[in-house]
Specification:
- The structure is a single chain.
- The protein is of the alpha+beta class.
- Helices cover 23% and strands 28% of the residues.
- Bound molecules: calcium ion.
- It is found in: Membrane.
């Protein structure tokens, strides 16, 4: 009986472990969400979503980029978001073989444009709307050692060109740093947009224990934009995986949040002109905190640039077991084979056309 009770407790705990995980606050809107199974009945169609570039869909995750150099991929929702306030819960995983060098990170988008690959974390520059960046390779020396990511938000009216050298620090409306890479635990990001405030939180322990990354007021985003997630690798690489995404109704403000919002609103109105009315249905994105003077932060990091060979060597020295890039291996094999074939043909040609003819002439008395 006791054994049975223990088994029941263990079973319940196991089930709770499987089911546990940060649940969205409100009703999930299926047409703006991603959940398993991703593909519709054995087809390559993911309902309501497009996947572009190097993005591949497997049974358990959508890999935006593999742990290989110079890749970029994205997923884009096919339907515009009609609601004014929302919460997005993104379950993701950033992982790879690199011990000290890895990158570049991923971005969550709420933009007017969709489905265009580009050089800002795999997506187009000069976007119109909101970009939230999880930057795992800081071009400035912003990160503490040991897998930190630099998380920031930029509200763009289509005119700002993302400044990679500065990690967008003088363009951002808010930011934070935290460890998100190669974690044992599940990693979740939550973005809450309500009453023109933007709150970004992270959960890296699987319980309902969310840490606030930033909370900022006076962010005005038009309705009807598209949701997307993109990622890129360059000289450095990582796997960037999306496991699920849920768009739902946002939770109500806590009293503390309401007070914080009011303080930020007062402060913004002292320094920034032309802030739209709270209930305004804006047609252009606007963020008050972007208007404040922002300095370029910190010393610039030396640019990292590797050839494929150097990249492999560094990883090998770091103790990584590289599976090898089969395309590269294949290429070399074909090159050697091609040289052998061309050499062989040239040899035969020389023998038959030159040597034999010369001999024939020589002996043609
Ligand atoms: Ca960066």
């Amino acid at each position: 009986m006791r054994v049975l009770a223990v088994l029941v407790v263990m079973g319940t705990a196991l089930l709770a472990g499987v089911l546990a995980g940060p649940e969205p606050s409100g009703t999930v809107r299926r047409q703006h969400s991603i959940m398993k199974p991703y593909l519709m009945g054995g087809s390559m169609v993911m309902p309501y979503w497009d996947f572009i570039g190097n993005a591949v869909v497997s049974d358990d995750f959508i890999r935006l980029t593999p742990d290989r150099q110079s890749k970029r991929g994205a997923i884009w929702n096919t339907r515009p978001i009609g609601v004014k306030e929302w919460e997005i819960t993104l379950h993701f995983k950033i992982h790879g073989q690199g011990k000290a060098l890895y990158g570049d990170g991923f971005a969550l988008w709420y933009t007017q444009q969709r489905n265009t690959l580009g050089n800002v974390f795999g997506s187009r520059d000069r976007w119109t709307g909101l970009g939230i960046f999880v930057d795992t390779y800081s071009n400035l020396e912003l990160q503490r050692s040991g897998g930190g990511a630099y998380v920031s938000a930029i509200v763009n009216d289509g005119k700002i060109e993302y400044d990679h050298d500065q990690d967008g620090t003088h363009q951002e409306i808010a930011s934070c740093q935290l460890n998100l890479r190669n974690l044992e635990q599940e990693t979740y990001m939550r973005v809450i947009y309500r009453k023109n405030t933007l709150k970004v939180l992270f959960n890296t322990n699987g319980n309902d224990d969310w840490r606030t990354c930033f909370f900022v007021a006076d962010v005005f985003l038009p309705r009807g934009y598209f949701l997307g997630v993109s990622a890129a690798t360059g000289d450095l690489a990582d796997n960037h995986d999306v496991i699920s995404l849920a768009l739902s109704d946002p939770p109500a403000f806590t009293r503390e949040e309401r007070e914080q919002m009011q303080q930020m609103q007062e402060q913004d109105r002292k320094t920034v002109k032309d802030i739209p009315d709270a209930d305004a249905d804006v047609t252009k994105p606007f963020a008050a905190s972007k208007q404040a003077p922002r300095e370029h932060v910190g010393p610039k990091r030396k640019k990292v640039s590797f050839s494929k060979t150097a990249f492999k060597k560094i990883r090998h020295q770091a103790g990584d077991v590289d599976q090898g890039d089969s395309a590269m291996g294949g290429w070399w094999m074909y090159a050697v084979l091609a040289i052998m074939v061309v050499g062989g043909v040239a040899g035969i040609y020389y023998k038959t056309q030159v040597v034999d003819k010369r001999n024939a002439q020589r002996f043609a008395f």
